[in-house]
Amino acid sequence: MIMNIKSIIISDYLSSLKEDSELDVIFPLLLEAMGFSVLSKPKETKGYQQYGKDIIAVGIDEDGIKKRFYFELKGGEDRNINSHVFNKQDGIVESLREAKYVDYSFSNKRYENLPLKVVIVHNGELKSDVQQLFNEFLDKEIRQSGKVEAERWGLSELTELFDKFLFGPYLLTDEKQVQLFNKVIINLNAYENEVNSDFENLLDSILQKSIKCFTKYNRKNILVFQTIKLIGFIIYSESEFTYNNLLIAKKYLTCLVMKFWYWVLKNKLDIPNKYSKHINEIIGFYIFVISKYLEKLSKFSLVYGGFYYEKGGRYESIGYNIRTFDYIDYLITFSGDFTDSIKEYTKYITNVITANPVLYSPILDIQVNTIVLILNLYIKANDFVNAKFYLKEVLIYLQWIKCHFDYLPDANNDIENVIKLKVTGKKPIYYSDSTSPMLAILLEYTAILDMEEEYIIIRDLVIEKNIDLGLFIPYYSIKEDFLADKENDLEEQLFSKSFFNDGFQKTIILKNLDEKKLTFEEYKQFILVQKKEFVYEYRTKKAGYGFLIDIAHIYFRTPFFPDKWRCNID
C-alpha cells in the first residue's frame, strides 16, 4: 500500500516539472543521492552553448564501471518525446549528436579517459509514433562506434529512481511519513493563514531522527539535507505552478527553515563544516522563493491601498492591516540587507508607506516589530527626517485611539479580540491593553531620535491613563540559573518556540522617587544606562544569516529583544 501511494505521488509530481525552472534543479539531487559527482549543472551554464550536456557527472554505472555521464534534460512541453520533439531544432537528434561529437573539458584529466554514456532524461513518455526511430537512432548514430553508450530515462524510470534513492531511503521511510506527506500535498491550499500541522509533524519526523554526530561526511547524512531541499522544492513547485499562490510557499518554507535552522543549531552545524554547502543551498533557495513572492506583490505596493481586497468582506480593514504589515516585515528583512543602495531602497519603503497609510495604525501590539524594522532602516540610512515623521504619525494614532476610544493595540495579539472590538465597539474580556510593550519601545525611540515634544506627550498620556509600560527581557541578560529550558539556548528557543517565556517583564516608571515626572534629559540618561541591559552574541548572525533572527521573531510573533533597537543608542 505504501509503495502505491509513493509511486502516485512521485509520478504525478515528476510529470509536472518544467525543464528550465524545475527539472534541472531537482535532477542533480537525485544524482547526488545515487552517488554521482555532479561536475556541471544547467544553472551554471545558462547562456552558454551546452552541446547536449545539461548535466555532466561521473559515477558508477549499473555494470559496476565508473563512467562519464552526459545528461540531456527535456521537460515541460518537450517531456513527451514525439516526432516533433525528436526532430526539431534543439530536439533529441541535435542534442545527442552534439553530446557525441563535442567533448567536455574536465579539470580532472583522469575523467577524460573514462567510458562515456549519454542519457536522455525526460519526465514523460516515448510516444509510439517515434519509438522505433528513436531506438534505431541510438543504435546507428550513437552506439555503433562502440565508444559511446546511450539510454533513455523516462517518467517510469525516474519514478523508480526517485523512489529508491530519494523518497525511499529517507523521506517516506514508513507509513506515517507517507500519510503525512500525502495529506500535506492534498491540503496545501486548504489553510489560509496557517501551516498544516501535518507538515510540521513530517519535518519533525525527519529531523528529530537525525540529531546525531555529523563529524563524518557520508551519504546517509547528506540525505537529510537533500530531503529538506526536495520537500522545499515540491512545496514551491505546487504553490507556484498548481495554485499560482506563492503565499503558500512563503508560509510553508518559512516553517521549514525555522525547524531546519533549529536543527542546524542543535547539531552545531552553524560553524563552517563539510555540510555548509548543503545548508547554504537550502537557505539560498528560501531567499529565492521569498524574493519571487515579494516581486509578485511589488506591483501592488505602490498603488494606494494596493493590498486592500474589495471582496474581503466586513472585516477586510483588519485583513488589509495584517496583510500590509506582514509584507513590510518580509520586504525589509530580506531586501534591506541585500540592497546595493540603502538610500534608494529607503526611498522605496517611504513610497510604500505613503501608499499604505495603514502602516501608521497598528492593531496588535506585536506589530511593534514592524515599526522597529522601519525605524531601524531609516536610522541605518541616516534618514532621520523620515524616521521622526513615521514615529510621530504612529504615536499620534496611538494617542488618538486611547483618548477617543480608550484602547491600545491588543497585547494578547489575538485577531479575534480585534474583530470583536470592531463589531461591538467594546473590548472583549480577553483584550489586553493595560500594559503596553509597544509604547515602552516607541518611547525609547523618542530618546534615540531626540524627539522631546513627542516624549512629553506620550509620558503624560501614560501617567494620566494609568498605562503600564512593560519590556520583555530574556533571563540570559541576568542569570542563566533562572532559565526554565536548560536544554536549548536562547537562539534554539527562538527558532523553535511560539511562546518564548524564558525572561521577565520589566516595568518602566516615568516618575522619580519623589513622584515627579521624568524630564526628557532624565529619561535619556535612563535609556543610556539600559543600553547594555541585554547583549547577546548570536551564532546565526556569525554564520552569515542574521536576517533569520528577524524572521524567527516575525514567524513566532516573539517581540524583538531590547538589543534590536538599543543598538541605535549613542
Describe the structure.
- With 570 residues, the protein is an alpha/beta fold.
- Helix content is 55%, strand content 8%.
- The strands form two sheets. A five-stranded mixed β-sheet has the order 1-2-3-4-5, sandwiched between helices. Strands 6-7 form a two-stranded antiparallel ribbon.
- α6 (128-143) links the parallel β4 and β5 (148-153).
- It is elongated and about 100 Å long.
- The termini are far apart.
- 37% of the residues are buried.
- Mean pLDDT is 87; it is low at 1-5 and 44-52.
Please count the helical segments: 24
Which descriptor suits the 3D outline? elongated
Q: For the largest beta sheet, what order do the strands appear in spatially? A: 1-2-3-4-5
Helix content class: 40-55%
Number of distinct beta strands: 7
Overall structural class, as computed from helix and strand content, comes to: alpha/beta
Mean pLDDT: 87
The proportion of residues in beta strands is 5-15%
Low-confidence stretches: 1-5, 44-52
What is the rounded distance between the termini? 65 Å
Largest sheet: 5 strands, mixed
Radius of gyration: 28 Å
Précis, in short:
The chain is 55% helix and 8% strand. By secondary structure, it is of the alpha/beta class. The strands form 2 sheets. A 5-stranded mixed sheet has the order 1-2-3-4-5, with helices on both faces. It has a two-stranded antiparallel ribbon with strand order 6-7.
List key phrases describing it.
5-stranded mixed sheet; 24 helices; two-stranded antiparallel sheet; 7 strands; alpha/beta; 570 residues
